[in-house]
User: Which sequence fits this backbone?
């Protein structure tokens, strides 16, 4: 699976309030601050249900 495809699906899950992503940083041995990995948090399903219901009502 390509990187762009994964990025698209992760953004879609964030938009639907199913997951939360956090950027991390770390300090290398030479003292430079670098980007780390993303931390994914699965959110409670109630938020996604509420989002879905709001979308249905707006239609």
Assistant:
């Amino acid at each position: 699976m390509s990187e762009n495809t994964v990025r698209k699906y992760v953004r879609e899950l964030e938009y639907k309030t199913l997951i939360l992503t956090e950027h991390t940083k770390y300090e290398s041995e030479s003292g430079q601050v670098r980007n780390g990995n993303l931390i994914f948090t699965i959110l409670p399903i109630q938020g996604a249900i509420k989002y879905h219901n709001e979308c249905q009502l707006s239609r």
Q: What stands out?
A: The mean pLDDT is 91. Residues 3-58 form one domain. The chain has one domain: 3-58. The beta strands are 19-27, 33-42.
